Amino acid sequence: VQLVESGGGSVQTGGSLRISCAASGFRYGSACMAWFRQAPGKEREGVAVIRRSGTTTYADSVKGRFTISRDNAKNTLYLQMNTLKPEDTAMYYCAADPPPSVDCYSDSWWVADFDYWGQGTQVTVSS
Question: What is the pLDDT of residue 74?
Answer without folding.
Answer: 98
